[in-house]
């Protein structure tokens, strides 16, 4: 067996190990946050936020376990790999869109439910879905999908055509553009809040967590972009497991963090600038009437008002 073959086997082992490691991190994170999931989601009434979290949580687990199971096969058939790549492309797109919906809703809250921001996000989502549909939905001449990337090596491997038409890499390019725009919006809002001193503690948490997410995940997507531009069949999928798992973990953590701070009373949520300019109210979750008095306005939380985070808002999170 020549040196090139030995290197290919080594790369295939790296790829399998990375897929397994990514799923292990995902399952470990699930285990250590399960109690928070029960406390802040399962024990709360059903809402869009709860549905979105549970979908993101359990779909990502099922999707990534399925991916790792296929990559760990020692002798996958061509038919299995062919069917797997169709599933992986669709499944990955669905997970990325789910994650971006979570992030865009957070930014929508950070920008005080601005209609312009909402219109921008709808446009970005439409463009992202279109690019994914074009990249994965139509046959591309020369795209490689095989179970035998090198002589004697069996692994589900895919890649762009060898003539440097990087179709699949456009998928990562689209994600990077979206992530770059969302990161810029987060950084801009963080700068405005810092300069003006606006926003309550929950808003600061939203801004901080969002910026940290975008900075971290941006480089994971960037690494995948570089890998797919290099277009080595036995290395192309080495980073996809981490991109899918880490993005899901961070997005789910963002939702848990907001509810945790809200329900545990660690945050003192301010109200929108149009209602209250300077206040740090304490929300009391009981059946007694809670009074909140500020220099500008007085708000009364009556027993009929059930605070449940059923919508994404600037003061309540998701």
Describe the model:
- This protein is mainly alpha-helical.
- The protein has one domain (3-263): Rhodopsin 7-helix transmembrane proteins (Rhopdopsin 7-helix transmembrane proteins, Up-down Bundle).
- It is 64% helix and 4% strand.
- The chain contains 7 helices and 4 strands; from the N terminus they run H-H-H-H-E-E-H-H-H-E-E.
- The chain has helices spanning 3-42, 48-71, 78-110, 115-137, 167-196, 201-230, 240-263; strands at residues 144-146, 157-159, 290-293, 298-301.
- The protein has a two-stranded antiparallel ribbon with strand order 1-2.
- Strand 3 (290-293) and strand 4 form a beta hairpin.
- The radius of gyration is 23 Å and the shape is globular.
- Residues 266-318 have low confidence and may be disordered.
């Amino acid at each position: 067996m020549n040196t090139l073959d030995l290197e290919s086997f080594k790369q295939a082992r790296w790829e399998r190990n990375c897929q397994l490691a990514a799923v292990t991190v995902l399952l470990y994170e699930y285990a250590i946050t399960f109690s928070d999931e029960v406390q802040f989601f399962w024990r709360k009434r059903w809402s869009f936020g709860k549905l979105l979290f549970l979908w993101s949580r359990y779909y990502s687990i099922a999707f990534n376990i399925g991916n790792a199971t296929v990559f760990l096969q020692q002798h996958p058939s061509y038919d299995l790999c062919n069917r797997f790549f169709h599933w992986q492309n669709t499944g990955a797109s669905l997970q990325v869109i789910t994650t971006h919906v979570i992030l865009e809703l957070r930014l929508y809250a950070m920008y005080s439910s601005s209609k312009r921001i909402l219109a921008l996000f709808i446009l970005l989502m439409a463009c992202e879905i279109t690019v994914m549909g074009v990249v994965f939905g139509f046959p591309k001449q020369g795209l490689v999908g095989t179970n035998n990337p090198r002589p004697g090596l069996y692994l589900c491997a895919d890649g762009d055509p060898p003539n440097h038409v990087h179709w699949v890499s456009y998928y990562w390019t689209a994600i990077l553009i979206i992530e770059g725009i969302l990161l810029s919006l987060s950084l801009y809002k963080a700068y405005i809040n810092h300069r003006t001193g606006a926003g309550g503690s929950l808003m600061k948490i939203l801004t901080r967590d969002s910026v940290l997410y975008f900075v971290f995940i941006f480089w994971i997507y960037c690494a995948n972009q570089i890998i797919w531009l290099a277009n080595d069949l036995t290395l192309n999928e080495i980073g996809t497991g981490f991109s899918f798992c880490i993005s899901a973990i961070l997005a789910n953590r963002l939702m848990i963090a907001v509810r945790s701070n809200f329900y545990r009373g660690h945050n003192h949520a301010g109200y929108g600038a149009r209602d209250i300019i300077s206040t740090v109210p304490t929300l009391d979750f009981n059946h007694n009437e809670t009074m909140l008095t500020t220099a500008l306005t007085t708000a009364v939380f009556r027993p009929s008002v059930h605070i449940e985070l059923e919508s994404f808002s600037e003061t309540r999170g998701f």
